[in-house]
Amino acid sequence: MRKLFLIIIALVIAGSSFAQKQSKKEKRDHNRKRIDALIKQEEEGVIAYKKHTIFGGKLINNGYGAFVEFGRLNSVKKGMLYQLEIAEYKSNREEKQSNLYAYSTPFIFGKQNFFYPVKLGVQQQILFGNKSNKNGVSITGNYGGGISVGLLRPYYVQLGATNTYVKYQSADSAKFLDPSGISGGPGFSKGWSDVTVTPGAYLKTALRFDYGSYNEIVSALEIGISADYYSKKIPLVVHEKQKQFFFTGYVAILFGRRK
Description:
It is a single chain. By secondary structure, the protein is α+β, with helices and mostly antiparallel strands. The protein folds into two domains: 1-44; 48-258, Porin, CATH 2.40.160.20. It is 18% helix and 50% strand. The strands form three sheets. Strands 1-2-3-6-7-11-12-13 form an eight-stranded antiparallel β-barrel. The N and C termini lie far apart (57 Å). The relative contact order is 0.18. The model has no long low-confidence stretch (mean pLDDT 83).
C-alpha cells in the first residue's frame, strides 16, 4: 500500500512538472509568434490598429505644454484624434531677476499674470505615407480645433524682508513696479485662489512623423501651428500690448501604444 502511495505521488509530481514545462513552452511559442507577427507588420510597413493612447510634451515658441491623446481609426487612411492639453504661454519680455541684497525667490519684473490655456479638441488625421520597411517612418497630417479655457493666475511679488505680497491690481500696485522694494517672486502655491477664467477657441494643424520600433508602439515627432482666440485681451506683462489672438508654432515628442 505504501509503495502504491509513493508511486501515485511520483506520478502527480511528474505530471505537474510536465504540465509546467508545457505551459512555459506554450508561453515561449506564443511570445515568439507575437514577435514574428510584429516584425512581419513592420517589414510590410502597414499600421493596422484601431485605437491608440498617446502622451506628449511640447515646446512652444512662447512657452511649453503637455497633452494626452486618444485616437480612433476609421479606415487605413483616416482617423479621429481627441486631445486634452495644458500649456503655459509667456511674454517675450519676461526676464528673471534676483535681489542683490537678499536671498529670495527670483522674480520677473512687470509680469502681471501666469497664463495657462487648457484645451479640449478634436482633429482629423490623414495618412500621407506608411512605413516602406521596418526602419521606415510613417507620416500623418492632422487638423482640427476645439475650446480653450484660459486660466489667469495673478503674479505676486514680495516686498522687502517682510512676508507681504502684492499684485498689480491691488491698491498698492505702485509698489509692484518699484524694483528697489521687491525682494522676491511668488512660489508655485501663490495666486491659485485668485485664478480667473477667460474662454476661447483654437484651431491647429500639424505633421506627425512616427519612427516607432514596432507598429504597436508610438514614438513620434510632431511639428505644427496653432491659432488661439480669447473672449477678451490677456494681460501678461504691465505696459505691454495685450492680445486676444495668439499664433504659435510648436515641436512635440509623443509616446504611446496602439491596440
